[in-house]
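Record Septum formation initiator family protein, 138 aa.
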Amino acid sequence: MVLVFEKGIMGLGKMSELYRRIKVKLKQFNEWQKHHPLFKYAAALVLMLVFTFSFGENNIYQSLKKSARLIHLDNEIERLDEQYKHDSLRLVEVENDKDGVEHKARLRFMMKAPDEQVYIISDSDELVEQPAVNQKQE
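=>
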């Protein structure tokens, strides 16, 4: 009987030598294992931990990535809650103070009421001409 391998032809003599070496190594391992009875449990635990945390959908990398995203989303929730409170207070202020809102809008958009005059005071030396809104153009 002749077995063909990639590197050439291996006869039964070399095969039996390989078989004998494997058998000797297994015997040595069994003797060592008798003196270290917890090795198989430790090896099984290590293999289980490696497969659990390295492969699959819930590996360490994915877990760390998800926890970082969770922290980011918690911070965003806190920020948006503060913004919501601020906007709610502003909404109540707008609903209760119509005259104040009108005044702020006129200042912001440089508009004037029909019965008022607007004076623009500037710190610069340049003359700034602003067209007055709500005036008749002649």
